[in-house]
Specification:
Distance between the termini: 42 Å
Number of helices: 8
Oligomer: single chain
Shape: elongated
């Protein structure tokens, strides 16, 4: 079975992966001997520094190979939602092979979070902002949480009324968009 874009597009949903994770799947250790990942020293340092699961003291709890297996087996679990009789281990092996050969690597949030509690596999989120102070600051809160976990955000301000249109609820002009942007800019982490 070839791993094509149709299959891959079905696999990367947080809900699917979270349900698979709750099934008690052990993503930490490969079920069999897996090939060593052949990356240069710089690639190895980046993978070890940014993506490996760590304990509270910062010590790695997995090798690069175990991290690739954690990701591939977690992503493959989604097959069960489309076919209860799916050969998940074969899909995991195929996905692992693509990663190990560096033919394909998923995005950073998938490498960091697949098979872990957070299960945030997406890198980008567009947050809607409704025309109320509660919604505006709820979006700021979600922005901070998404950025904390390695994601990025964009915003849809299309639901806000134009500057100068009175708010029946507040009986005053709504904040102008450039003023409204301040909390969003403040909530974003700096490089």
């Amino acid at each position: 079975m070839g791993m094509d874009s149709d299959i891959y597009s079905r696999l990367l949903t947080a809900e699917t992966a979270a349900k698979a994770s709750k099934r008690g799947c052990d993503h930490a250790k490969p079920r069999k001997e897996v090939p060593r990942i052949d990356v240069n020293d710089n690639g190895r340092r980046v993978l070890e520094k940014r993506y490996l699961k760590r304990d509270v003291l910062g010590n790695p709890l997995e090798t690069i190979e175990e991290m690739f297996w954690r990701v591939s087996s977690n992503i493959a679990e989604a097959e069960r939602f489309f076919d209860p009789d799916a050969n998940v281990e074969a899909v995991a092996d195929e996905f692992y092979g693509m990663m190990a050969s560096l033919e394909f690597l998923p995005n950073s949030p998938t490498l960091m979070n697949a098979g872990r509690e957070l299960q945030q596999l997406s890198a980008c989120f567009v947050l809607p902002v409704e025309d109320s102070m509660e919604s505006i600051f709820e979006a700021v809160k979600h922005t901070a949480l998404i950025h904390k976990s390695g994601g990025g955000t964009g915003f849809s301000f299309s639901r806000l009324r134009p500057s100068g249109i009175r708010s029946a609820r507040l009986l005053r002009d709504l904040l102008r968009p450039h003023i409204l942007q301040r909390p969003y800019s403040t909530a974003r982490p700096r490089p």
